[in-house]
Write a structure and sequence with these properties.
By secondary structure, the chain is an alpha/beta fold. The chain contains 17 helices and 21 strands. The longest helix is centred in the N-terminal third of the chain and has 24 residues.
C-alpha cells in the first residue's frame, strides 16, 4: 500500500515540476504577474489605499510609491492585525502570526501568516522541496516510510484570544494536509509540545523505537542534540543503526558547512542526500535543486515579489532596490520582499549572492546585521562558516557553535575575537587559530588585504569556551527553541561581552 502511495506522489511531483520549469524559463513575466496579484488583493486595505495601489501598473511605479520597510515601521500595523482588525496590511482578518526573534535579540517579532501565505507559500514551498528532491533522487521513498517532525508551539495572543502566535513550523504542522499526516513522526501532540526540552526528550524516546524514519528536517544545532540523545538511549554508534532506511536531511536556518562533518558521522553513508531550503517566518523562498551544487533555486511563483538592495546601499537612509532581472551574479544583495501576507517592500535582514540567472539561483551569505566590517574587511557569515569548516577538516575536529566580533584598538591595529565551542578541542588551539585565519584570508580578499603583514589587522584571537556554553546562554536569555540561532558575527562586541560575562558567572 505504501509503495503505491509513494508512486502516486511521484506522478504528482512530475506535474508540479512542469510548473516550476515555467517560472525558471519566464522569471520576469512570472514576477510581474505576482506583483499585480498582490497589489490587486491589497488595493482596498488601509495600506493599499494609503499608497494608491489601484493605479500602480509597473514595478517602477511600485518602487516609487512604496518605501522600503522594516519590522519597526510595520509593527504598529501588525499589532492592529493581531487585535483582530481587518483589511490593514492584507485583505480580511489574519489569524496566525509567526513569533520570530531572528537571533538572540530580546524583542520578538510577530510576522503575519495569512491563509494565502500559509497554503500558497509555506506549504507549497514544502511541496516544491519534495518535487525537486524526487527529481534529483528517483529512488526516494519519502512516502513509504516516515519523516521526523520537529515543530514549535502555538498559543493564543493574550490581548485577543482568536489570534494564534507561535513558530511558523507549528502553524504549518497544524495545517498539514490529512493525506500526508500518517507519514510523520512523532505524534502531533509531541511535535507541538510547548516545552522544548520536554519535547526533545519525548521525541528521542519515541524515535528510538522507530526504525522506519527515512528523512528529517530542521536546524542542525537542535537535531544534533536529538541525535545524541537517541544514541544514548539506544546505545548505538550512529543513526543508521537506528534508522537503516534513512535517505535525506533537509536543512535550513543556518549555514550547514560547520555541521556537515558531524552529520556525516551520525549518518555514515554516501547514499544520504542533503538538501538545503531557505524557509523563513516570512515565507518559503528557495530550495536546492541540484545536490551536487551548494546553491538554491529561487521560487518565483509562491506569492512573493522580490527586490534586492546592492551592498553599497545597505547603510543609505533611503536605499534603492532593484528587481530580479537587474541583479548581477557574484554580488552581495540584501533581500526585499512583498508577500501574500501583507509585508510590503520588507527587509527580513538576509543577504544573498546570485550564482546563476538562468535559472535564478542564490546562496545565503549572511545578514545585514551579521557581518564584521570594522576595518573595511567586509567579512560575511558565508566566509566564516566556510573557513571554520575547512579548518575543522584539516585538524580532524568538530565545532558545535561559534561567534566572532571585532577588537577595537583605537589608533592602533585591530583584529577579530572568536569564541568557539568545540565538540572535541584541537590539541593546539593557537595552531588552529592561525590556520583559521589563513583560511579566512583565502576566502575573503578584503580580509586578506587588511591582514597583509599585520599592517591593519592582527591574526584573529580564538578562545575555546566550555561545553554547553551557547545553549545555556540561550536558555538564560529565554531563547531556547528550535527557531533561535546563535549570532555568528556582529560589527559590535555585545554578544561576545555577554558570553564572556556569562562564562565568568558560571565558572
Amino acid at each position: 500500500m505504501r509503495t503505491t502511495i509513494n508512486k502516486a506522489f511521484k506522478a504528482y511531483y512530475s506535474l508540479r515540476m512542469r510548473r516550476m520549469e515555467y517560472f525558471m524559463e519566464h522569471p520576469q513575466e512570472v514576477q510581474e504577474k505576482i506583483l499585480q496579484q498582490l497589489l490587486h488583493k491589497a488595493n482596498k486595505t488601509q495600506w493599499g489605499r494609503r499608497h494608491g495601489y489601484t493605479d500602480i501598473q509597473t514595478p517602477e511605479r511600485y518602487a516609487q510609491r512604496v518605501p522600503i520597510t522594516d519590522y519597526e515601521r510595520l509593527q504598529p500595523w501588525i499589532y492592529r492585525m493581531m487585535l483582530g482588525e481587518k483589511n490593514v496590511l492584507w485583505h480580511g482578518r489574519v489569524r496566525w502570526f509567526s513569533k520570530s526573534s531572528g537571533t538572540t535579540g530580546a524583542k520578538s517579532k510577530y510576522i503575519p501568516v495569512s491563509n494565502e501565505n500559509l497554503r500558497k507559500c509555506h506549504i507549497r514551498g514544502g511541496w516544491d522541496s519534495m518535487t525537486l528532491f524526487h527529481h534529483q533522487r528517483p529512488d526516494a521513498r519519502i512516502f513509504e516510510n516516515k519523516t521526523l517532525l520537529m515543530a514549535g508551539s502555538l498559543s493564543p495572543f493574550e490581548e485577543y484570544q482568536r489570534t494564534q502566535i507561535g513558530d511558523v513550523s507549528a502553524i504549518i504542522v497544524s495545517h498539514l494536509p490529512w493525506v500526508i499526516r500518517p507519514f510523520f513522526a512523532p505524534d502531533f501532540e509531541t511535535a507541538l509540545h510547548p516545552n522544548f526540552e520536554e519535547k526533545i526528550e519525548r521525541t528521542a524516546q519515541i524515535l528510538s523505537q522507530e526504525t522506519n524514519i527515512v528523512s528529517v528536517g530542521g536546524v542542525p544545532t537542535w537535531l544534533i542534540v536529538l541525535f545524541r540523545r537517541i544514541l544514548e538511549i539506544t546505545e548505538k554508534d550512529n543513526m543508521l543503526e537506528v534508522w537503516p532506511d534513512f535517505q535525506a536531511y533537509i536543512h535550513g536556518g543556518v549555514n550547514f558547512a560547520p555541521y556537515e562533518q558531524q552529520f556525516r558521522d551520525f549518518l555514515p553513508s554516501d547514499d544520504i542526500s542533503y538538501q538545503e531550503a531557505y524557509n523563513a517566518s516570512e515565507g518559503y523562498f528557495a530550495v536546492q535543486n541540484d545536490f551536487s551544487v551548494k546553491d538554491m533555486l529561487l521560487l518565483l511563483d509562491n506569492g512573493i515579489y522580490y527586490e534586492f538592495i546592492p551592498m553599497e546601499e545597505w547603510d543609505a537612509d533611503y536605499p534603492k532596490a532593484i528587481p530580479i532581472w537587474e541583479v548581477e551574479v557574484g554580488k552581495h544583495y540584501a533581500i526585499v520582499i512583498s508577500t501574500n501576507a501583507g509585508l510590503w517592500r520588507y527587509t527580513p535582514g538576509d543577504t544573498v549572492m546570485f550564482t546563476s540567472k538562468s535559472p535564478y539561483k542564490i546562496k545565503i551569505t549572511g545578514r545585514t546585521k551579521q557581518f564584521i566590517n570594522a576595518f573595511g574587511e567586509e567579512v560575511m557569515v558565508e566566509n566564516t562558516d566556510r573557513a571554520i569548516a575547512l579548518t575543522c577538516q584539516q585538524f580532524g575536529v568538530q565545532v558545535r557553535d561559534y561567534t566572532a566580533a571585532p577588537i577595537f584598538m583605537g589608533a592602533g591595529k585591530g583584529g577579530h575575537q572568536w569564541l568557539v565551542e568545540f565538540v572535541h578541542a584541537p590539541l593546539n588551539i593557537q595552531a588552529f587559530a592561525r590556520t583559521l585565519d589563513a583560511n579566512l584570508q583565502s576566502l575573503n580578499s578584503d580580509y586578506e588585504a587588511k591582514r597583509y603583514k599585520n599592517m591593519a589587522l592582527e591574526c584573529l584571537q580564538l578562545q575555546a569556551v566550555p561545553q554547553g556554553t551557547f545553549i545555556n546562554w540561550l536558555k538564560a536569555k529565554g531563547k531556547y527553541s528550535s527557531q533561535v540561532k546563535v549570532p555568528r558575527l556582529a560589527n559590535h562586541r555585545q554578544y561576545v561581552e555577554e558570553l564572556e560575562a556569562f562564562i565568568a558567572g558560571v565558572v
